[in-house]
Known about the structure:
This protein is α/β, with parallel strands linked by helices. The protein has helices at about 1-20, 75-95, 165-185, 190-195, and strands at about 25, 45-55, 60, 70-75, 100, 110-120, 130-140, 145-160. It has one domain: Lipoprotein like domain (Double Stranded RNA Binding Domain).
Amino acid sequence: MKRRIFNALLVMTTLALGGCALSPQQLTLQPELSGSQIAPVGQGQAVVVRVVDGRTSPVIGTRGGVYPDSSTISVAGADILPKLQQQVEVAVRLLGFTPSANAYNAPQLTVTLADIRYVSPKDSSLMVTQADITATLKADVQNAVRRYSGRYSASSNHRFGSAPNLATNNRLVTEVLNASLERMFQDQTIGQILSQ
């Protein structure tokens, strides 16, 4: 009899803990630059544009929960870099320049995806109650005589009643990345150096 009760409790505990575990998420971000604050300064000059991944890992954080180390959230460089490259080229066009892969003796803009972080509580609570999301981009601009570097970060804090699903996390992280991208191209020094 004791053995049956013990087995029943063991099964119930296993089911309860298994239901509290959060699965990993592979995010598919969709960066999009609004460009409403970008003033054209160029006259169609060629600019070499590159986007690189400066992160040490595709893992940006965890979803928290009972087993936070197994509920990772990732953004693959192979997925995000081409999309980010496209949006940087859109911004360069809005600035009045022509993006080029390898124009001779042209000014250069290198954008580095420096960091994306998703921080959630790592206690033993059964639900994620909040997430602090940060994205940082770095711009390196150079022409024949001048160099300039800048870092552009954006962040947000969200509270939830239960762990956010994949679609929600895609949207939230994309919004923060977009804000970082907007800040970068509001820096007028970038356009000034590219136009010289």
